Amino acid sequence: MDADQSTERDFSDVGIIVYGSLLYPDEWDDLPHPSYERGIRVRVRGYKRILNNEADFRSYTGMRRAVLNVVPDPDAWINGILVPRLYDDEKGELIDRESGYTMEEVDSDDIEFYDSAREDALSVPVKIAVGEKQRDDILPIPGYLKICLKGARYWGTDFYDDFVHSTEVATGETLERYLQEWGNGKESPEYVHGNENER
Questions:
Q1: What distances in angstroms separate CA 124 from CA 9, 15, 55, 62, one per listed residue?
Q2: Going by C-beta distance under 8 Å and a sequence separation of 6 or more, which residues neighbour residue 83?
């Protein structure tokens, strides 16, 4: 069934905010619906985004095993994509995919929309994935980080800029600084540059 032909009974009673690899549309290919097409750009107060969760299902080498995570922090904020209501048949698959995380409910007052015209989208509780395998001695998985950066670019330049400004690596260094070091030869610059799928 096409998304525009769906009925109320097709939807679950929960929405989700994604903030990492699921920003990139291709990451939804194994799920029943391309729900990112209904995605809404948001900022969320009260969380810090850090590359400090140990990967469950992604390949890694040595200490390069970190994927994105959020942790409660009253002074911080992140940006992400709100899928206002998941389809019933994809909710379970998403929960399985995020098996290394706990789904935590977000206070609707802490959600700010890039486009104020979309503020009526909050009709059900919204959850966000909080990592369970946090470590402060691991580094980002290069291929994973590339996917996240491409995903952030997909949602626009302002969204990408917010993404790199509001993310840290496990050492406490900002992602913006980490990417600058990549571009200066610390890592392959192919993970930093490019404008694929930007809109």
A1: 14, 6, 30, 41
A2: 15, 16, 17, 18, 35, 36, 38, 39, 40
Report d(CA 85, CA 72) in Å as an integer: 23
pLDDT digits (tens, 9 = 90+) for 67-111: 899 999 999 999 999 988 777 777 777 777 776 788 899 999 999
User: Tokens standing for 33?
Assistant: 């619906």
Which one-letter DSSP state was computed for residue 61?
B
- Residue 44 exposure: Cα atoms within 13 Å on the Cβ side: 30
> In order of start, what are the domains of the chain with their CATH numbers?
10-191 (3.10.490.10)
Residue type, 92: G
- In angstroms, the CA 16 to CA 196 distance is 25
Which ranges constitute the DSSP H helices of the chain?
Answer: 88-97, 142-154, 157-165, 175-181
Buried b (16+ CB within 10 A) or exposed e, 42-58: bbbbbbbbbbbbbbeee
> Tokens standing for 74?
């009253």
Query: Can you list the residues of the chain whose pLDDT is less than 70?
Result: 1-12, 33-34, 56-63, 99, 117, 119, 182-199
